[in-house]
C-alpha cells in the first residue's frame, strides 16, 4: 500500500505529507508536528532530486525521513527551549513569585505568625514575625497563596 501511494504521487507524496503535518500543527498546536513536517518537506526535496536513482526506494525514503524527523525534533526542541528562557516576564504565570521584593503595609496584624497584606487589588495571607497593623513589610518568598514577609 505504501509503495503504491509513493509510486502514484511520486516525490510529491512527501510534500503532501509535510503540508498536512504543518496544517495539523496549526489546528492542534504543540510545536512538535512542525518539525516532522519540515523533515517530510526536506525528504520531498531530496526525492525530487533523486527520484530516478536506483537506491532511492521507498525504504530509503522512509529511513531518511525518520532520521530527518529525529534531527529536526532535537534541533527544534533546543530552539524552543533556548528561546523560552529569555522572557521579559519570567514570572508571568507565577503571580506569587512576581511579588517577591515588593513592600506593603499590613492590613491585619501578624499574630502567631499569620496576617494579611494588600498588594494591588488582592489580599494575601502572610507569614512572619508578629507585627501590628500598619507596619511596613517586604515580601521575601512565596509559597502558593502564602507570602513570607519581614519587617522593614
Description:
The protein is α+β, with helices and mostly antiparallel strands and 152 residues long. It folds into two domains: 2-84, no CATH class; 95-151, Nucleic acid-binding proteins (OB fold (Dihydrolipoamide Acetyltransferase, E2P)). It is 48% helix and 23% strand. It has five helices and five strands, in the order αααααβββββ. The chain has helices at residues 2-9, 12-27, 33-50, 58-84, 95-98; strands at residues 103-111, 114-119, 122-127, 136-143, 146-151. Strands 1-2-3-5-4 form a five-stranded mixed barrel. Helix 2 runs antiparallel to helix 3 and helix 3 (33-50) packs antiparallel against helix 4. It is rod-shaped. The model has no long low-confidence stretch (mean pLDDT 87).
